[in-house]
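User: Quick sanity check before I run a bigger batch. Here is a single chain. Can you write out its predicted 3D structure?
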Amino acid sequence: MQKYYSSRFQSYAALLLPVMLLSGITQAQPVDWEIDPEHFSIVFEASHVGYQNQMGLFLEGAGSFRYDPATRELSAGHVEIQADSIFTNHDDRDNHLTGRDFLNARRNPLIVFDATDFAPGGDDAGATLTGNLTLLGETRPVVLDLIINKRADYPFGHGRETLGISANTIITRSDWGMDYGVADNLVGDEVTLRFEFEAIRQ
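Assistant: Done. Predicted structure follows.
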């Protein structure tokens, strides 16, 4: 009798195992995250006549993405930056950068990034994020190195689960038709972009 029940138990276990595994897979759900505008730093830098790397900020940006921390899968991501929110601590330079020589913010008010692929690295934090950057009405692919710094419930304030992320890339601005100062090396063609933000689980 004991052998009979043992055999029946093993049979049921064999049947239930795939169901349990499948259940675990289906429970993994993509989660919507929204970038906290109060903790969203958008930094750029480019060479100025070779003397120094001029740094600046975009002060207004927003974005959201769909990411499953359990499977480390990103299924959507969209970021919009207000082109006229540029700040380099010099009014004349800021006006020049938002004008036709550079961002042409009146005609192209938004800088847009749409994620297309996410490849987790060998560790738990690093990843490569690929997407399309739309600038001056032109869309080109870009690749960002990304690090997930922390995922935890926020220790104060809203108290919700939050992701802390750092990302960076280097673009060649003339690829988007922004070639002012490139030929005579007044302004570097390569622009380093850096993003630091916190995203709140929705």
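The domain at 28-201 is CATH 2.40.128.110 (Lipocalin).

User: Great, the batch can go ahead then.
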